[in-house]
Amino acid sequence: MARRRAAYQKRKQNKFAMMLVTLVLLMLIVVVNIRKGELREKQAVYAARQEELQRKIDQEEARSEEIREYEKYTQTQKYIEDMAKEKLGLVYEDEIVFKTEGE
Q1: Helix and strand tally (H, E) in the chain?
Q2: What pTM value is reported for the model?
Q3: Residue 38: CA atoms inside 13 Å, Cβ hemisphere, count?
Q4: Where do the structural domains in the chain lie, given as residue ranges?
Q5: How many Å apart are CA 32 and CA 38, to the nearest integer?
Q6: CA 24, 30, 32, 34 torsion: positive or negative?
Q7: What are the tens digits of pLDDT across the range 38-92?
């Protein structure tokens, strides 16, 4: 009879241990799913930030190209003539200048 009682208690302990293991596994699954959702949210935020930064990089590259083009233009004779006419009012000797009444 002691054997039966020991076998019964062992089965009872095994069921309890299985329930504990199942409970721990369920808790792990819940925690993993919660973290999975948080990581997806972070990923979406990071993807949006990456797109924004890439857009800014593209804008700055375009601006850099415009500056390079302007630098080339400033080294031309045309630029020098335009600035002399605009800032200093200089004209060529054979050039005729018409002024409107407002000037």
Answers
A1: 2, 0
A2: 0.54
A3: 6
A4: 2-63
A5: 10
A6: negative
A7: 999 999 999 999 999 999 999 999 999 999 999 999 999 999 988 988 888 888 8
76 φ, ψ to 5°? -100, 160
Report the chain's C-alpha Rg in angstroms: 40
44-59 burial code (b ≥16 CB/10 A, e <16): eeeeeeeeeeeeeeee
Largest CA distance in the chain: 131
* pLDDT at 15 (0 to 100): 85
3-state SS, 76-102, equals CHHHHHHHHHHHHCCCCCCCCCCCCCC
Distance CA 87, CA 58 (A): 34
> Are 97 and 91 contacting, i.e. CB atoms less than 8 angstroms apart?
yes
